[in-house]
Amino acid sequence: MGRARAFDEREALDAAMLLFWHQGFRATSLKDLEDATQLKPGSLYNAFGNKRALFLRVIDHYVERVITARVQHYLECDGPPLEELREFITSAFVHVSKGTPSPACLLLNTAVELGMEDAEIHLRVAAGMRMVERGMQRQITRAQALGEVDACVDPQAAARGLAVAFQGILVASRMTSRRAALVELTDQAMGQLGLSPN
Length: 198
What we know:
Blueprint: H1 9-23, H2 30-37, H3 41-48, H4 51-75, H5 81-90, H6 106-114, H7 119-145, H8 155-173, H9 179-192
Helix pairs in contact: 1-2, 1-4, 4-5, 4-7, 5-7, 6-7, 7-8, 8-9
């Protein structure tokens, strides 16, 4: 009978996730991961394998803990659809109001850093981004049914455009401590796509 692990795997993944989120994949060393997770090299390797294998687990963990939770809260709920869309975006940089730039999004950061050079990482990142786009499309479709969005707007195209705009706003959130400017960018993006509340 195998010996039970003497650490909480979820806590270790949380710690590794925050480290990769703030530093990126390449800049994070195994020593950094050991320090962050408080695991010895042998335990880290036995639990997660090498750095890339751990990063794949972290991406899955991030999608489950952050992306899925936020999509369910804002984009799969039945509140006012355009308000929920706007809040989904602006809540992503809420910490900027405390005077520090945002770490943005682990998926976006990874896409910028690694692009398509690692197919498995790329597939996981793309799947998480599609989840956001589908949630946006759901709320745009709801808004259209409620008469809040013009019938000529294509919900799929608008969701794709808003998802791309959201990624740009997240990049901007890494370079400013002015939350008001990011909120203004959000309102401009929604307005240009015909998604401004009446």
